[in-house]
Every structure is written in C-alpha cells, then in structure tokens.
Amino acid sequence: MIQNFYWKRKNLPPGPIPYPILGNFPFLAKYGIEKAFDLIKKQYGDIHTVWFGETPIVLICDVPTIMETFVKDSETYIGRPMDQKLTEVRTKGRYGLIFNDGDIWRHHRRGTLQIFRDFGMGKNLMQERVLDEARIMIDQLKQGSNIQNYGEIQQKIDLAVGNIINLLLFGYRFEGEKLLEFNELKNLLQNFFRSIGKPWIRLLNFNPWVWKFLPRFLLDDQYKQINGMTKFFEKQIKNHELEIDFATENDPTGA
Question: Is the pLDDT of residue 89 over 70?
C-alpha cells in the first residue's frame, strides 16, 4: 500500500492516485479519455501524471512548456519506453523511425531527411502537395454535394492523407485501379489497430511483466494483422523494384 500510494509517486508530478495493476484506467473508463484528461488537468495543473497500469505517463498541457521541452531541448527527450513484447508482435524488432530511439533512430532520421532533401522535398514542396490534395478533395465534395453522412467525408479525408504519404514514398496517388490498394491497406490498418486497441491488450502493454505468462494463442489476432500488413508492404516494394528506372530519379523509395 505504501509503495502504491506514496513511494512510486514520490518524484513525479501530481495526479490521481492509481490502483495497483490497473493504474488510472477505471477513472479513464468512467469519464471517457477526453473528459477524464480535462478533469485531471483542472485539478492537478498543466503538468501532471496519469498511470496506465503500472506505467506513469507525465503529461505536459501548455504550449510554452511543450516548445521549451520537446523543441528547444528535443535531444534530451528522444528516448521512448517500448514494451518489448508488443514491439515484437508489431514489428518483430525495433527498426525504422517509429519503433526506435537513440543512435539508431538518429542515423535513420538523418539518412531519411537527406534523401528527402536530395529530392527537393523541403517544406515548400510538402506544403504544395498538401494543398493540392486539399483542393482535389474540396472539388470532389462540391461535386458530391448530396453527401449524407460524416463517414463519406471521413473517407475522402483518409484518401487525401493516404495520397500525400504515398506520393512521398512511391510517387503516385491512389486513383483508378490503385484505389483497391488504398482500400486494402486501410482495412489492414483498421484491423490492426482494432486488435491492439482491446482494453486487455492496452492494460497488458503497460504491465509488461504479465506477457511472459500469456499463452501464444491469445496473441494470434495481433500476429495475423501484422503479418497481413507485412505481406502488403513486401508486395508493394517488390512491384516497385520491378518498375525502377535507374536512369531517372522518381521518388525516395527508389533511391
């Protein structure tokens, strides 16, 4: 009791008292994530601690402190705690930019940014691409003025975001027959986030010591979804390799 209510919270910013193992999940579940965070901020201030299971999460909620901490002093805060078991399920290791930190993350980031710069992909070009997709989406919305629900608008927003990313990586938009690729990828991503978004998975993510006691079949859905995405991207890369023209430079992935 002393450990849970005093010692483990001693050197952290204030916040609601956590339950053993569950942390503040009961409070978040009772009010919903947005309202719960708003209530916590009003009671404990702009810097406070929320417990996800046995893992403390320090939240910074004012812009000046965020800029000072994560922009001006960004090198100090590039480390990020990763649950090894869930990372293994997601990516079979810590690779790339998203699931990494430290020196490996720095090298990947430096190399990626250099390739983008070599292709002239500075802020201006990225801004142009975002604006181009926004214009296309707005034109489509005007033409389809009989849109009946938010879901149809969200679908067009998703497609616009997907086009920006895919133009950056592979040099083409999702249109015509390529729309099938977008729908397949979106379905894979939705299934993946659904599988890892289950409450018991989230709870286990922040209590990593429990993973070693789990039978493998409980993670079958997670492995199935990540394998589906891996196969999709492997197919994309293989198709892209067949189309590469080494006499020209079309996109960063080809480079």
Answer: no
